[in-house]
């Protein structure tokens, strides 16, 4: 019987192998394909390259009923630094908000501890 191939770093959305166009969620420690999180190539470049705000996947930035506005405001309120830093944080939250108009129900992987 052939052995089942074990995927070392599965995508948090589809469970597939995380090879290219992936980003790590700092909350659940799952890798996400750009497409599985619904992020455009331009948005992905911004999120992956910014060192001001940590990336959160759609499962961790959502209440299950859509974007968690209270958590988004808390993240913005916790930003320290200059105006540029705040602008990067605000743009990140705007990207998150655009992606979360609907309920999030198909997050495959449990949060890792």
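Sequence proposed for the structure above (113 residues):
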């Amino acid at each position: 019987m052939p052995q089942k191939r074990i995927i070392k770093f599965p995508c948090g959305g589809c469970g597939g192998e995380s090879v290219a166009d992936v980003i790590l969620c700092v909350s659940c420690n799952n890798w996400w394909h750009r497409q599985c999180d619904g992020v455009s190539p331009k948005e992905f470049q911004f999120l992956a390259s910014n060192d001001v705000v940590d990336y959160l996947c759609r499962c961790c930035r959502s209440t299950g009923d859509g974007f968690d506005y209270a958590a988004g405001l808390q993240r913005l309120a916790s930003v320290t630094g200059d105006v540029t830093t705040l602008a990067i944080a605000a743009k990140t939250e705007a990207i998150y908000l655009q992606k979360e108009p609907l309920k999030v129900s198909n997050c495959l992987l449990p949060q890792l501890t």
